[in-house]
């Protein structure tokens, strides 16, 4: 583990254009469950019943209850030190930006400015029927759309829906120009985001708590917790910078 940490620190410093890709594992140390590990959401809830368009259209009450709880849970969470490291690395010019599957906006709250939200965000809302923007309070109170009486939803991408085209193509362009892709806290199970590592011409590194089906396709895999590993790498980078 030690040499891998030192190797990552060296790659972070020498790379010209590093892009970071994060998943739910980046937010668990802030208290937000992920989806597929032991305490993940999908261990308790069937994603087909809450994270698909048919769930929204046919079981709105179940859909609404799941997201209402997640939104209320977000009121008490904060970015952890690992998020702060990534914000500092952008300010110091070590990373170009973060492509994230997370919808919690913790990267932006930590201070990152270039964040491509590939699965949208759970803090803004719109009407599923007329697509007009909607108030958070109106969603939480389960009120219908003021414009058309339709069903309100968070601005997230549901299974089977297309990723936001501009965000997706900008993130893909950044990955295809990167000489280092740092993947953090994702099982790499979900298409099309899980295609990113093989589309990067540079080195690919994964920091993850569990093994993934893609481990062997990556140049370096560091098994561990995002917050702890990122702080450790950052200490080595800072020490080398001091000379
Ligand atoms: P799926 O098999 O229904 O989705 C796979 C589809 O993603 C592909 O067939 C492809 O058509 C589509 N896709 C979306 N945007 C694309 C793009 N810009 N370029 C190419 N293909 C694109 O469902 P899945 O594989 O189980 O999950 C992946 C899909 O579900 C993706 O669209 C992903 O964004 C979305 N998703 C939503 C959530 C959520 O709950 N917030 C979670 C994960 C994935
Ligand atoms: N540090 C490092 N890795 C962690 C940590 C941590 N503190 N906590 C969890 N992990 C790892 C888990 O071992 C798991 O492999 O993060 C990974 C999270 O994987 P998933 O739960 O599958 O989450 P993610 O990859 O982001 O899912 C992709 O699926 O359902 C959708 O909307 C959801 O956008 C999400 C998408
Ligand atoms: Zn409407």
**Cα-based radius of gyration, to the nearest Å:** 19 Å
CATH class of the largest domain: Alpha Beta
In total, how many beta strands? Answer: 9
Class inferred from helices and paired strands: alpha/beta
How is the CATH topology of the largest domain named?
Rossmann fold
The chain-level mean pLDDT equals 97
Q: Write out the distinct hetero groups bound to the structure.
A: nicotinamide-adenine-dinucleotide, adenosine-5-diphosphoribose, zinc ion
Strand numbers in spatial order across the main sheet: 3-2-1-7-8-9
Biggest sheet record = 6 strands, parallel
Please, could you describe this protein's structure?
The protein is α/β, with parallel strands linked by helices and 243 residues long. It has two domains: 1-32 and 79-119 and 164-243, TPP-binding domain (Rossmann fold, 3-Layer(aba) Sandwich), CATH 3.40.50; 34-76 and 121-156, SIR2/SIRT2 'Small Domain'. It contains ten helices and nine strands. The protein has helices at 2-14, 47-50, 53-58, 60-74, 81-91, 106-110, 136-140, 165-176, 196-199, 226-242, and strands at residues 18-22, 95-100, 115-117, 120-127, 133-134, 152-156, 180-184, 203-208, 220-223. Strands 3-2-1-7-8-9 form a six-stranded parallel beta sheet, with helices on both faces. β7, α9 (196-199) and β8 form a beta-alpha-beta unit. α1 (2-14) crosses α10. The longest helix has 17 residues, at 226-242. It is elongated, with a radius of gyration of 19 Å. The model has no long low-confidence stretch (mean pLDDT 97). The chain binds nicotinamide-adenine-dinucleotide, adenosine-5-diphosphoribose (APR) and zinc ion (ZN). Zinc ion binds at residues 127, 129-130, 132, 145, 147-148, 150.
